[in-house]
Amino acid sequence: MSEIFRLLKKHGSAIITVPYGKAGKPEHRVYDRKNLGRLIRCFSLVKKEFYHYSAGKWKKCSQATADSANSQVPHHFRSNACACLLLKKQ
To answer: Using CA atoms, how far apart are residues 19 and 37, in angstroms rounded to an integer?
Structure first.
């Protein structure tokens, strides 16, 4: 994230998507509320959306639903929810 911040021009924007929820294994980077805040602390948050995996599709949901999402996901997914963020460099 520091490299993204460094490369962006002043008032530039970045869209990122990260796995969200509870990590199945400690070596996987999955962000919860606290760690997501740390990840984006040097940016202004313009917009955030959350999605959870259900019945073979990603469906938009609230952050609370993403926090507790417990659906079965394919093996190669690291979490059953994701956070999509629009960030801005001030």
So the answer is: 14
Measuring CA to CA, how many Å separate 71 from each of 13, 47, 52, 75?
A: 32, 25, 8, 12
pLDDT digits (tens, 9 = 90+) for 43-90: 999 999 999 988 889 999 999 999 887 767 776 777 889 999 999 998
Quick one: residue 3, left, alpha or beta (phi over 0 = left, psi -120 to 50 = alpha)?
Answer: alpha
The answer, yes or no, to whether residue 24 has pLDDT greater than 70, is no
Q: Which two tokens stand for residue 49?
A: 């959306």
3-state secondary structure of 83: strand
Question: What pLDDT was estimated at residue 56?
Answer: 86
